């Protein structure tokens, strides 16, 4: 009688306990190859804020991860995901990014998968707009912040203690992290391991591991339900006609599209975007960025965190440096000389750290590399595709 009354409850407790104490290696094994394939070009937030899909992807050398921000959503026919589908070269691009994903966001994502980064090829697209005097702010960081990755960062033994301290101190600049109870205290302990009594640290670590386990279970469930995180209007299907085109032919066809789509204005901005958001308010944008510097920014140190981690893991990385829309930024009050200082500093930092650099900043004042004020357009993707292909085959 007692068993019949409490049996279902005990069974439920056993089932829940089995999930809670399940090793993460078993959870990762529950992610199928199909799940990863679905995630590759989905740009679903659960992919970049989770761990398992990225871990499974990094373990499979057929994927080439591409880290970036909102430019990845411009899924035209020349976009790497579409181009290398119709003209494969031994790899499948795996996209990690959305708007507001600056270097620090990517650092957490990469640190959560640090073991899988060893000797791994990957591509990292840099936007010069990240390098403002304020750098990453609360508005862009909080929606892209992953608690699961932050807990993994705290508990990770795959990152050097000195780098963990440096990164933890940077994370504590953000009040929403400092005030996040258990996680905030753990990050403070990472930044200063001797600030509290061992018993208090242990209690928070136990609580943190339990919370982390709940987050990984959520990650596991969501990875099985991945769906595209972009709007249908942002996607153009692969074009099989591009299969036979040379790089020169690709640029010519991309340029025709760019000319047609941006001919309405002197800034070479996509006509639909220009008419919707700029045309009737143009005078308000005159000199609206005149006080921005771009060569003095906390973003440079955040980028260094990323490079320090990648160096520790001996990752083979291609950084892609894209330009400003020079004509637009002239109007916005940021002269070419100021932009050049930013370009040179980014290039210097990347080369100083020993990484590959595809530098397209020479297209600053040339039309059609970008399709609006900041995002890569069809012609720009053809240049980037060629650099990715060369990097993958020749390093």
What key attributes describe this structure?
alpha/beta; five-stranded parallel beta sheet; LTA_DltD; membrane; DltD; 395 residues; 52% helix
User: Which outline best applies?
Assistant: globular
Number-wise, the strands total 5
Share of helical residues: 40-55%
N→C terminal distance: 70 Å
Instruction: Tell me the β content.
Output: 5-15%
Number of domains: 1
Low-confidence stretches: none
Oligomer: single chain
Order of helices and strands: HHHHHEHEHEHHHHHHHHHEHHEH
Give the helix tally: 19
Describe, in plain words, how this protein is organized in 3D:
This protein is α/β, with parallel strands linked by helices and 395 residues long. It has one domain (22-394). 52% of the residues lie in helices and 7% in strands. The chain has 19 helices and five strands. The protein has a five-stranded parallel β-sheet with strand order 2-1-3-4-5, sandwiched between helices. It is globular and about 65 Å long. Pathway: Cell wall biogenesis; lipoteichoic acid biosynthesis. InterPro entries: DltD, LTA_DltD.
List the topology elements.
Elements lengths: L1 H19 L3 H6 L3 H7 L5 H5 L2 H7 L4 E6 L11 H7 L5 E6 L5 H9 L9 E6 L11 H4 L5 H9 L5 H11 L3 H4 L2 H11 L6 H26 L23 H16 L8 H8 L20 H14 L3 E6 L4 H7 L3 H17 L3 E4 L18 H17 L1
Parallel strand pairs: 1-2, 1-3, 3-4, 4-5
Helix pairs in contact: 3-5, 7-16, 9-12, 9-13, 10-12, 10-16, 12-13, 14-19
Brief characterization of the structure:
This protein has about 400 residues and is α/β, with parallel strands linked by helices. It is about 50% helix and about 5% strand. The chain is globular.
